[in-house]
Amino acid sequence: MSRILLAEDDDSLRGFLARALERAGHDVTACADGDEAVTFLDEPWDLLLTDIVMPGLDGIEVARQAAAKHPGLRIMFITGFAAVALAAGEKAPAGSKVLSKPIHLREIVSEVERMIAA
Asked: Which pTM value belongs to this model?
């Protein structure tokens, strides 16, 4: 079972993502924003799945802090802002993947499983 730290400020999407990933057999800790997510960074994680644009710490900063504490951590961003997705590649830790919203839950679960298996 993979451990996934999820940071998403949209309550509905966070709930849907957490349930879909848990049904796929993952252990998910869901956080409402980046500030909450960084409080869990001392724990071991297989994947960080984070929105980019959130109140407080954005997903890029959460990913930077996570990568500093856990070199080699797999990081996946989800965003509804195409321009942010394009710019994220320049600022995000190496090896990060960016998925653009809207995206089907099955596609996110498949991408998560691909990243974890890599």
From this structure: 0.89
